[in-house]
Amino acid sequence: MKPFVESNGLSNDGEALRRRADRDGYLFLRNWVDKEAVLAARRDIAGVLQDAGWIDGGMEPEEAMTSHPPHVSGEPEFSPVYDRVQRIESFHTLAHDEKIMAVTGHLLGDDVLLQPSNIARFVFPTNLEQTTPAHQDFVHIQGTPDVWTAWLPLGDCPRLMGGLGVLTGSHKFGVLPVSRSLGAGGLRAHFEKIGGEWVSSPFDNGDILFFHSHTVHRGLPNLSGNRLRLSVDFRYQRASDPVMEKVLTPHQGRLSWSEVYRGWKSDRYQYHWKRFDLTPVEKVPVEPVDEAV
Ligand SMILES: O=C(O)CCC(=O)C(=O)O
Asked: Which CATH number fits domain 8-281: 3.90.660.10, 3.30.720.210, 3.40.630.30, 2.60.120.620?
């Protein structure tokens, strides 16, 4: 797979960043996000996972070594552990990183809403059939197409651990039909007819990928054999655009915000979206098509 085009050279030029994002459907920036903040989120999340036994004991949790059988979202054992992760302050704080906000400001203007429903992902090395299928985020988040997802691994993500692949230019083809699939989101986009080229690069800590809600992307298999891949998805849109109600609740919808915020040291980012006069809309059901399409 060819590498991502790096956009650090354009990072001070909003117009050039927008042109690049419009051409490719993504922006990849190296050494961009506050590395200490990324590692703080990694440490805190890995601590919960080690406590749950998903990361091996006897070493630092941030090594994220695992010999535990894989867990995936949707299993009963997954939810209590995921909800503990959802309550982590450093994880939600990372989404407000000022250099992430600077890029989303260039892409969207000055009324950027971070959709509060931040996502953490743990991808086991022994669960390849559950690798996230090719999909467009719009199907899951709706509201407005003008949403940019920021995807970043928590720490280094060498090629062996997979990462994320993007189909260049695929955001120009609207919303594609979907079929049911294994893997996060459970829906696979039918992208085969639109052409384009799959690109990806290994990530070092601090690197970040932004992509449009119509950009087709997929998880790459974690072939490390013994290390959990930890990553986050944060999503940004204009506060003045409609926003799907569901993304205003904690991801997976079991916790209330007061439960999430219990025990936080700072209230700076709590209920951050309440300063906007939002237009919430309901989710429109998505109908998977027959595999033969
Ligand atoms: O991290 C992954 O496996 C995929 C994440 C992703 O594609 C998404 O959340 O839209």
From this structure: 2.60.120.620
